[in-house]
Amino acid sequence: MSGFEKITSTFVPIKAENIDTDQIIPARFLKATTREGFGQNLFCDWRYEKDGSPKPGFILNDPIWSGEILVAGKNFGCGSSREHAAWALADYGFRVVVSSFFADIFKANALNNFLLPVQVSEDFLQEIFARAEGNHNLLLSVDLASQIIRIESGGREESFEINAYKKACLLHGYDDIDFLLSQKENIEAFEKKHLFSQF
Amino acid sequence: MSRTLFDKIWDSHVVARSEGGPDVLYIDRHFIHEVTSPQAFSGLRKRGIPVFRTGQTIATADHNVPTEHQDRPISEPLSRLQVEALINNCAEFGVNLYGLGHPYQGIVHVIGPELGITLPGMTIVCGDSHTSTHGAFGTVAFGIGTSEVEQVLATQCILKEKPASMRITIEGKLDAGVTSKDLILYIISQISTSGGTGYFVEYAGSAIRALSMEARMTICNMSIEMGARGGMIAPDETTFDYIAGREFAPHGEDFQRAVAFWKTLHTDEDAVFDKELFFDAADIEPMITYGTNPGMGIPISASIPSLDEMPSESDRLALEKSLKYMDLQAGSQLLGKPVDYVFIGSCTNSRIEDLRQVAALVKGRKKASHVQALVVPGSQQVRAQAQAEGLDKILAEAGFFLRDPGCSACLGMNEDKVPAGKYCVSTSNRNFEGRQGPGSRTFLASPLTAAATAILGFIADARELI
């Protein structure tokens, strides 16, 4: 996987808070055995009528809103641990999700799929929502290297936190499993003295 | 230095630690199921690597299985493919599978404890957020994503930053008819669905100590619904008595040695938590949710909050949106509200004790004719035990249908769904929009409340029937 560079893009704002992973991708779509194709069912029950036609009020069905960044209300990704939620967002074309708070498991899943969760202050989040009213061409830029998110052009900016290891993974396209496999000797040595090998 | 129970278990599983980076955490037991594992096995195949420790990996089929006629081929083609993929992956990689038809098959968080696979002091993961259930035994247990399932299959380790610690102490005695489900719904209603995010929770206090293992599992199970990474309870005699004699638990002298170690698994007296919360058991009534997240709960006799009670604009909007979905009025009461379905099951409340409570309440009564009542046991062993005790007959006479084990209508991946617009009182863990089927409307409650509601046909306070 290639590295994660600075992204400057328009965005899709969804103000709702506590968006759970059942909304991001409902359970009935979890029957696949591959990682691909979940984007078409992203937010399915908010996005489509029962007959499959698009629901007119939902933002993903409004062509004036687009971009590689999703901006959502606090506690995004709560509920089920399904990584399919991160796969669906990435498959749809999002590379960054901005919120004022992320659920733990979703955050880990997103990072493992090179989808960057950017946690901002509630105040900053509300400013993005406010500035987006009537301005669907507004740009956000997210610079992982310097850990800065900015409302363009030249608007307010804020720094965001990311674990140094995960940052390096994203910047250089590293993978957790490669790292863990490199630890094999340590793991085997640990097992020899580990208590549960005695029961 | 004084340490918490969580510190003791986590720290004893750290293989390697680096400055600013996550810990390499060793995993003692890894449970897998058909829905979140196929892509992980594909990853191993792509890298050309085996499952590192097959003996510490346990598989079952639960999320996507029918709860009727499990002896026949699965009729839904995608579900069949996914269950077959699990069978093939387990055979190819040498993983032990308790699949459909096996006497140990069941919901992953029910079978681990009942088989004695889940033991105090362990680290346990599974590609399912309700893995926190196993914390009832004094384990560090948490849900993971599929990429992490692949990591654990490949190396028996996971990369994780150590979370902050929280202790929730509940003192006092629960009233008759108030269950551990009510206790956990109460806590979540007090601290919200994100109140525990970033924390690993230890539950303590006399109200917790008095609970059975089944009841403790219900508490730890729903830790994730307050956002917590996991929840745990220090092991005690109740724990040791539950484990003794179970199939994969240590036996004889090994058991005695194990108990001696397990007795060291408690938080030191002066250990410091990052956050502490205190509740009084006497304040807790039977609880029920009215909205579309598990934090939107009220005592069963209370009214749904009114819009002007909401502390912020965003809370008001969230309440409005939820009530619109549920077709309920702010400020109204839920008691007496007619329902269409009652679901008793899920990894939260499908154990033998839950079925005993339900059977005791419905014995000699009949369910209301307009209510469909599903009882889905957590495992084949729970089902067999229920039959051995004659609970199946009591349930059948009351018009309840005891099905085959699985996750069922908790998440509606199989045929067991609540139709759009219909109301269901459910003993499961999530009332999200569409959780039990597109358009379904869920009220979360205890098995007693669910049973009483099925009998009367409307939301009821079980204490009036006990």
Strand content of chain B: 15-25%
First-last Cα distance of chain B: 49 Å
Rg of chain B, nearest Å: 21 Å
**Number of helical runs of chain A?**
8
**Backbone CA Rg of chain A:** 19 Å
* Percent range for β-strand residues of chain A: 15-25%
Q: What would you call the shape of chain B? A: globular
Could you list the spans of chain A in which at least 5 consecutive residues all have pLDDT below 50?
A: none
State the helical fraction of chain B.
25-40%
Counting helices, strands and paired strands, the structural category of chain B is alpha/beta
Please give the largest β-sheet of chain B.
Answer: 5 strands, parallel
Please count the helical segments of chain B: 15
Total strand segments of chain A: 8
Notes on the structure:
The complex is a heterodimer of chains A (199) and B (466). Helices cover 31% and strands 15% of the residues of chain A. With 199 residues, chain A is of the alpha/beta class. Chain A is globular, with a radius of gyration of 19 Å. The model of chain A has no long low-confidence stretch (mean pLDDT 94). Chain B has 15 helices and 19 strands. Chain B is globular and about 55 Å long. At the A-B interface, helix 4, helix 6, helix 7 and helix 8 of A face helix 2, helix 3, helix 5, strand 8 and helix 10 of B.
